[in-house]
Amino acid sequence: MRKGLVVFKKIISWLLLILAIFALYKTFTIYKQKDYNNFVRAERNVYTSEFTRDKEVKYNDYASYKIQSNTFNDAMFYKTVKVEPNTPYKITCKVKTLNVEKQENNNGGGAQISIENTTERSKIISGTNDWTELTLYFNSKNRNEINIGFRLGGYDNMCTGTAWFSDFMLQKGVEDNSNIWNIACFIFKNTDVNINDKEYKFQIDEDEIELMENDMERFKKTCEEFSEGKMKVNYEIIEINESINSISYDQENEYYINPTDVEHIIQTYVDNNEYDHIFAVVKLGDLSKNLEIPVNDWIGLGGMEYQNIGFSNIRLPNDKNSYMYRYEYYVNRFPEEVFLHEFLHSLEKNATDFGYIVPALHDNSKYGYESEMYISLKNWYKDYMQKKISYQGEYIGLPEEIYSKKPVHESEFLYSEIITINDEPQNIIEEISNLTHNLVNVFMRILNYNT
């Protein structure tokens, strides 16, 4: 009897041990699915998207970071990273997508790398795609740390679908201090859009293209003259035959060309060239046809970004006989003004991002500058670029340094330093150590919350 009891106790002990091992295994399996390796989850609509580590769909030996959104959401994994101010950086990752759809057709939603709470982002992947590399170039400017996000959604958009992220890398480059700006002027010769069931079709003719060519040459010379040689311009004019079929809208400007409206058209050019600014020349009306797309009295729009490159709209007048862009001594001696004005909006934004205090470009009247016959605000722009605006006993305007603060490009990473942002545990000991570390962090957060 006693012998049978001993055997029974041993069997129970072994069963309990097996159950304990199984429970530990299941717990560890769940932990592996939910171990984000110190990445933080963030959602616009909380508890909407599913975040997991996927060991089945992966790019390398490590489980990928998976975001699944069955309803529209903006969701990301992000990690806080220390950076050196005024330094170029490059972030890369691999991404795979399944049925990614954006809620708004005209805005930047999809799988992407982004910096949280900014518009800085890589190109966007939507639809269904096998593993693809994404790259985000950025300058840290006056920041000491950033939140790097691997995102399914967008700064101003939400998405459905699934995205897997893997193979993260951060590189620190060497700043290019050149003051030569490479500028692309895309002339979109055809606009063909449908707004509220009404078709709008416009075409830019050869005479209008010649005007743009003349004004770009004047813009080049004016930038060099007004900056007193502190910046130089190289430019390329690219005529685009493919029609613009998408157009954006907001209450302030009404209809305009958002970078994402033409991203599919210009992406190859941007990938193959290191542009520092982009002009998009468009036609949105034609008085001879009595057809005009509604705009809120703008001729140019600046301050936008396309993958961290300054992006400006240049709108041709609806009246082909307008002297807006035509040089005529007794009518308009400053036809390049719109190009210069919109470019300066990008420099203004850049200077502010770097921590400089500069006068607002539209505050000319505040400093005593008014439009003059034939030359408009030419003297304002000149003093603005030369930092010769007299104000309260000092001179203000764009700082000289901003003329070499250009967008970050691949050429700045020929001799880069790789910074690890995602050390995966290499063995069971490191796995347990990582688990313990995470549990301690959770406990400390709960303790701090309660106190």
Order of helices and strands: HEEEEEEEEEEEEHEEEHEEEEEHHEEEH
Helix percent reads 25-40%
- Number of helices, counting only DSSP H or I runs of 4 residues or more: 6
| Classification by helices and strands | alpha+beta
Q: Main β-sheet: number of strands, strand sense, barrel status?
A: 6 strands, antiparallel
Would you count the extended β strands for me? 23
Instruction: Tell me the count of domains.
Output: 2
Average pLDDT reading? 89
Descriptive account of the structure:
With 451 residues, the chain is an alpha+beta fold. The chain has 2 domains: 40-172, Galactose-binding domain-like (Jelly Rolls, Sandwich); 180-410, Collagenase (Catalytic Domain). It contains 6 helices and 23 strands. The strands form 7 sheets. Strands 2, 3, 5, 7, 9 and 23 form a 6-stranded antiparallel beta sheet that branches. Strands 13-10-16-20-19 form a 5-stranded mixed beta sheet, with helices on both faces. The protein is elongated. The chain starts with a helix and ends with a helix. Residues 22-33, 426-430 and 442-446 have low confidence and may be disordered.
What structural keywords apply?
Jelly Rolls; Collagenase (Catalytic Domain); 6 helices; 451 residues; 6-stranded antiparallel β-sheet; 2 domains; alpha+beta; 5-stranded mixed β-sheet
